[in-house]
Amino acid sequence: MKDWIVGIDIGGTNLVVGLVPAEGGAPEALRVRATEPARGPEAVVTDVVRMAREAVREVSAGMDDGEAISVIGVGVGCPGPIDREAGLVIESPNLRWRMYPLRERIEALVDWPVAIDNDANCATYGEWWQGAGKGSSSLIGITLGTGVGGGYILDGRVVHGASGGAGEIGHTTVNVSGRRCACGNEGCVEAYASGPAIAARAREGLANGVQSSLLELVDGDPERITAATVYEAVVDGDPFATEVLTEAARFLGAGIANVINILNPEAVVIMGGVTRAGDHLFKPLKAEVRRRAFKSLVDACSILPAELPETAGVVGAAGVFLAERRDAAL
C-alpha cells in the first residue's frame, strides 16, 4: 500500500490541489480553480475539500486491481501569517481573512489530520525538497503572484520566527514614501513586484499617454492588462513594458539584497509566473542585488528560477505535513 498526502495551495488567484507520494515525486490528479476571495473563506474551504476528494478518487481509480491507497494527511498552504499550533490564518490581506480557523474547518470535513503553514513557506519547502534548491543548506524562496511571499529553509526546516511570520520579504520596505500596499504599509516590495502591481504600473503609464503595444494585446481595454500581458509585450520588445518589468525587478532586487545581507543564504529561488520573463527579469534583478549586497555574500548565493513553477505549493504543503509529523515524533 502506497502512502499519499493531499497538498493544497490556497492562493489569492487560484486554488491548486493534488496528491503527493509520501516518498516524494510529482503530484498527481491536480485540480485548479479560481479562488474568488469575495465568496468568503467557507466557500474556499468547501472547494478545496471537494477537489481533494476528487483527486483521491482519481488516483484510487488508476491503481491496479486490488491495490489500495493510503491518505495519511493533508498539508495546506495559505497566504499571510499563520498560527500553526492553533491552526489559524491570523491575517491574509489578499484573501481578506482574519483569525480564520482554517485547520479546524478542513478537519471538520475530512477524515485525515491537517497541517497548515504560510503558502510561501510551503512553496519554498517544495523547491528545497524536490526542486531548484534541492540539497541547499539554506534557502530563501520568493513567490511572485497576487502578492509577494517569502520563506526561509535552514538545515531542512522552515524557519517560522517568534510568531510564525518569518520570511515575509514582500512586506519589507524598499521605498519609505512609496506605493500603498494591500497590507496598509507604504513602499513594500509587494507594492512594486506583485502581479497586480506590475499591471497597475503599466495602466498608469498608458493613462499618461505612453505609447505601447500593450493596448493591442488587450484589444484596447487597459483594464484587461495583467502582469502576463506585460511579460508578453516585453518578449515582443516593447520598450515601455520592458521599463515596467525592469522597475519591478530592481525593487525586488533591493529586497533580495537586504535578505542576503541579513541571512547569507546559499540559494534564492524565485517562483511564480514572472519567471517566464527569463533574462528580462533576472538580469536587472541580479544587477541590483550585486549593487546593494556585500560581494562575498552575493558570490556565495545562487539566484535561481523555480523548477516546480505550477506545483511547488502543493508539493511543499505535503512536505510540510511530513515534516510536522516527523518533528512531533521526536
TrEMBL record:
The organism's superkingdom is given as Bacteria
Could you tell me what this protein is called?
ROK family protein
- Give the protein family: Belongs to the ROK (NagC/XylR) family.
- Sorted alphabetically, which Pfam families does this protein's record hold? ROK
Please name the source species.
Gaopeijia maritima
